[in-house]
Design goal:
heterodimer, A: 307 residues, mainly alpha, MetI-like fold, 0% strand, B: 544 residues, alpha+beta, D-Maltodextrin-Binding Protein, domain 2, Dipeptide-binding Protein, domain 1, 7-stranded mixed sheet, 5-stranded mixed sheet, globular, SBP_5 (chain B)
Chain lengths: 307, 544
Amino acid sequence: MTDLTSVFHPGAEPGAADEPHTTAVAGAPVRGGAREVLTFLARRPGLVAAVGWVALVLPAAFAPGLLTSADPLAASPADKLAAPSALHPLGTDELGRDLYARVVHGAGLSLKATVIAVLVGLLAGSVLGLLAGFLRGWADDVIMRVVDVLLAIPGLLLSLALVTALGFGTVNVAVAVGVASVASCARVMRSEVLRVRHSLYVEAAHAGGARWTRVLVRHVLPNSSGPVLVLAALEFGTSILSVSALSFLGYGAQPPTPEWGSLIASGRDYLAVAWWMTTMPGLTIAATVLAANRISRMLDGEWRHRG
Amino acid sequence: MKSSYRPGRRGRGRVLAAWLAAVPLALAACGQAGTAETSAAGNAPRAGGTLTFGLSTDPISINPRGAGAGNDALYVSRQLVDSLTEQDPATGKLIPWLATKWEASDDARTFTFTLRDGVTFSDGSPLTAQSVKDNFDDIVRAGAKAPSSIIYFTGYKATEVVDKLTVKIEFTTPNAAFLQASSTAALGLLGPSTLARPVEERDVANVVGTGPFTLDHYTKNSEVVLKRRKGYGWAPADREHQGDAYLDSVVFKVIPEAGVRTGALQSGQIAAIGSVPPQNVQVLRSSGYTLVVRPNPGNVFSLTANESRPLLKDVRVRQALAKAINAQEVRDTVLTPDFAVATSILARTTPDWTDLSGALTFDVEAAKKLLDEAGWTPGADGVREKDGEKLSLVTTWLSNFGPNQSALELIQQQLSKIGVKLELQTYTVPELLQVYAKGTFDLAWGNLSRADGDVLRTNYSTAGNNYYRIDDAGLEDALRGQQSTADGAERAGHIQRAQKLIVEKAHSIPVFELTTILALSSKTHGITLGADSRLQQLNDAWVS
């Protein structure tokens, strides 16, 4: 069976109209040496900054101890509401806690929630889209009508309703945000599947007697997942915003555990006396969202189409 | 077009705006120099004009009996209704208002009021003994639909009209706190046109009283507009100005965000704001705003133990918590000097308060010793444990007072030093009532304002809701004792005994007193707070 596929693999028929999509991630750095990579990056300082920022934020999420040794919960009333300084790079809050330590430790919960949200949206959306596009018929109708209904409800509103039903907590917020993004993933996946399922190599696999599950997993899924993965990277940015929005409204972790959204919320009453309490976590969120968007643009074939 | 900058009219405006914005900053930099607690009122009061007041929450219901949004709702409804008596904020004593004199029987079951002659409701009907009877019967009939008022009517028997201006209220059980209750807005008298309507129709309209203002309109989540009542002539003696109010109208604007409220005052859009957040007090004070400050009477902010939980049944654990909380540090860190460290479970401004600060000392070593004695040993992660169980306590709280969260986070840190873990859980009011009813909490954070020691009975009596599952015969005896006697000195003795028992047995751990803070622009004068530390009727208020 594998032999048959390779015969009809895109490389063998470069002129085919429905050339299967190869994901940029997989196809990127194969061609071209280190020099080409450097030129590519040198022309895109924004991308370098984005990758650099993410490289800084990710360790904060999973090993905050690497970036700060301060305790994010230790109150020190004598140092309350101190402006940013060498000792406290982002200042201190109303109890004298180091804001830098709180932002770093807050990255953990906020980014883990975002990852869960994106995974929920990506997995559930992909499976639904794949089934709808591949099976067609009544399965397609049922799934896509449900997706239409989901799309009709504004995402944040849907998340709010879900988190109210599920109860407070970081994981619940993540699931609620993830479910709200299922619909768009399912749509993109379905359209890709519809494109791929009539291509020659898929029909050949069918003709060769492959089971439909095998055709689905070996041929349709890998060739239709590219745009969905790019969407997931883009979704990462919007999910950070949604997770932070729900946390800002108080649906996230209970105090004193820091989250980016709740840090902004607790600082807003102090805006007149301590601007850094909202501004610093706010800038952190903005930078992370922008970085995620920039990287998702890179994944969307920027390397392949480089000039 | 070239983009050259021409300092035209708009440009000058912008420069001026920048200067104006810089002025408060400069004043703030001067620090203490500009404190203006009493702004230069100087000139005589002027009649006319409109006062715009920023409220922190939507009143929800302006029916003084209703389940409105607490203080902010009462700020509004107090302007519409008068009460039988007035509690003088300066002395805490009751003085005549709609009743010229009153009398309580020795067993505190019968109260006779003699009404002032010539008082009318704003719908034109006269105030008579029958009006009082209709009002009180209406409250009892409404029951749970009049939550703020019904709590004062436990054991209500009947109201008897003795003659046109004399009315007698009878209870089957003693109710010594009823006299003070007669001064609250919750028992303010409503006119017949209001009473004729079902309770549900009195939330946003149809509230008619004898007060110095009448309701023009109330738009939910936006504003309440009141107009001056013509021919008002029965203000109590603690108001400087008798007769019609100075102001033509009062507009209460709903501005929930604290920063926006402060900003609206600073930019001159509104003349006065309530619920000034502590962190803005210094800035406002030093830039020339008048602050109206009054400590709230009643139950101070305290942590109350749920004694049905095995962990807190042990009095030593509760006492250890009390000793490990550094109330002074909490006050100094999250509040301002306007707020006092608690000296008893009652605030200093409550009648019959007694100073128990000697029993409320901060002593970490003593706290550790108490926990050692109770068998709680430090665990590996620093949290104490006993028989495999961690000393971890779920604490409920509401976000109705801005600094609550910061205060609790600090207390959490203080308690972690003796190996006690505090888990904070916040709820909405209806959710919290369910949690209380089910008893699924260890500690509850909160306060309750009322200018009478009877507030302790509401919170800690086993006969009431008893949310905290307190089982203390001595305390119950004191709480019933104060309710059963009309003799002031004897009643004070009971209330003081109750405070002592609550503090010494650490049924509830007092931390700090709530203080109500209003901020007024320099053109606003004569706004005061009543004995309950809520906005007083605006008879004396005027704008220049």
